[in-house]
Automatic annotation (TrEMBL):
InterPro entries: YjbJ_sf (IPR036629). It comes from the Bacteria. This is CsbD family protein. It comes from Aurantiacibacter sediminis. Residues 21-39, 46-56 have a biased composition (Basic and acidic residues). Residues 1-56 are annotated as: Disordered.
Length: 56
């Protein structure tokens, strides 16, 4: 179950981050890049959990 949750959270953060990067405000763009990177990290975490088991 942790694998699925991490992947969903990652997808949401990545999508929101991409949307924020379309802003004209440089601060919001930077925030969007960080949020997108966080989402990619969460997705990777979910993949690792899937391959190694949810016990990690």
């Amino acid at each position: 179950m942790g694998e699925f949750t991490d992947k969903v959270k990652g997808n949401v953060n990545e999508a929101v981050g991409k949307a924020k990067q379309k802003s004209d405000d440089p601060e919001t763009k930077a925030e969007g890049k960080q949020q997108e990177a966080k989402g990619k990290g969460q997705q990777l975490k979910g993949e690792v959990k899937g391959k190694m088991g949810n016990d990690i």
